[in-house]
Amino acid sequence: MNLNILFEDATLQIVEKPAGVDIEEVQHLLKEGFSPAHRLDKDTSGLLIIAKTKDALEYLQKQFKERNVQKTYLCLVEGNFAKDKGKIETLLGRSPNDRRKQKVFLSGEPGAEGKREASTQYQVLKQYEGYAFLEVKPKTGRKHQIRVHLSSLNHPIAGDKLYAFKDQRVPEGLKRQFLHAHSLTLTLPDGVEKTFTSPLPKELQSILDNLKTL
Question: Rounded to whole angstroms, how far apart are CA atoms 125 and 139?
Fold first, then answer.
């Protein structure tokens, strides 16, 4: 497995994680003392920040906690949208019926106590026959946040086996969930703000190329 390094200095690396690789496998590949500063789901591809020192790891995790890192994802979802943009704000927590999954809770409903706030903005980039291609910006970093939020709108991510609906269609040729960590904007430990981008992988772009536009 190859982690493509897009940027490196004395404190961190910005790498592209391929789909099908979990964070534990990434950690195993890294040099001693290197650590991922955040997480990407196993079947999500895209940008991952690797801290090269303990101080850098603490700094980066603080930036994520304080929501100073701007993240943008690209995804293909089931169905079409009447509006071209929106915001999803809910509480999120572990599903009581399936511990693998997260669940949306609304304030005041049974089981909502202690659940964490989650906010996701999305914009429709293009609509296809039966699908929509979105740019998504999570303002918080909860587990499975984008996947469960979009599923809660009845627009699950194409190819997402965990949050898919029963008998959900999958575009021909799609072998994994269509979710890609496309860009990151952050202030480096030296105080310089930088933006990094990762283009949509060829196997996902080919899926879009084969869909019929509306």
Answer: 19
pLDDT digits (tens, 9 = 90+) for 79-109: 999 999 999 999 999 988 888 999 999 888 8
What pLDDT does residue 116 have?
92
pLDDT lower than 70: segments of the chain: 1
Q: 41, 84, 160, 167: which is the annotated catalytic residue?
A: 41
CA-CA-CA-CA torsion sign (65, 71, 75, 79): positive
List 13's β-bridge partners, or say none.
8, 50
Burial 77-103 (b: 16+ CB within 10 A, else e): bbeebeeeeeebebbbbebeeeeebbb
- Looking at residue 1, what is its pLDDT? 67
Token pair of 136, please? 């998504």
Full-prediction pTM beyond 0.85?
yes
From residue 62, how far is each of 1, 5, 55, 69, 186 by CA, in Å? 29, 23, 11, 10, 12
Place of tokens 């930088």: 194
Told to judge if 98 belongs to the known catalytic residues of this protein, a careful annotator would answer no
Q: Rounded distance, CA 107 to CA 122, Å?
A: 22
